[in-house]
Design a protein that fits this description.
Blueprint lengths: L1 E2 L3 E5 L8 E5 L7 E2 L18 E11 L5 E17 L2 E16 L9 H4 L14 E20 L4 E27 L2 E11 L3 E16 L4 E12 L12 E11 L7
Antiparallel strand pairs: 1-4, 2-3, 5-6, 5-13, 6-7, 7-8, 8-9, 9-10, 9-11, 11-12, 12-13
Amino acid sequence: EVVGSGQVSNIESLDPFAREYQLKAPEAETMYVRGVVLPPAKRKWDHPLDLSIGLSAGYLIPNPDIGERFVTSRQSLLIETPVRGNFRLMTGISYQEVTYKLDDVDDNNFERVTLLKYPDFGTFSSSPDEITVDNTMLQVPIYFRYYKPLNRSWSVFAGGGPTIDILLKQKFDYSFLDIRNEQLVTFSEGWESDEVEVSLGTLSGNVGIEHFFSRRLSGQIELNYQHGLSKIGVENRSFNSFGVSGGIFYKLNDPRNR
């Protein structure tokens, strides 16, 4: 409530639980305000960058070629900070396991040139029935996001950016079917690489929703598409993938102190 000729207007806040007031009064005129509660002083443990930290987990759905099957997962530790207005910068580190399998190698007519990129393939007396490749990776996202509050508890967001991929390990497993002594037998051969490879991995876009459980705690669900920019690994291939993930975020600062 304002006594005098001043004006009070509500200002939309990035924190859907907070309400801020902008007071305007003519120059050299006295104005008395009642009912405005001043926020508490900042606590010494509040972070100057207004960071949020989060844990996220999800699955990738790569775009396979004919005869390929994928099983993938991602676990992430993320940090997010406001940049300007409703824009935020997100980064962190994700642990990924990308496993894909080439089924019925002969029947699906994989190109010989492609198959020879797989280690030891040219040394086999017969073609393997299946090839399974396990990739262990780290990924560093650099995402810009725009958040649009819908009400006190819900927001939607959209954004994207590049990722830096770090390939830590590859494991190749070749499964064979053969007839020996008039019996069908199976056996396998393996090959591993611990060579670390760093590359500009993907260009990503994502959309999602955020729900606030309290002033500091929120949950997110997002859909993500990643387009492979670099070819990685011994077999020299890139990955395009869709992903779905969910996470929990916690603000280090109390929004009321801003």
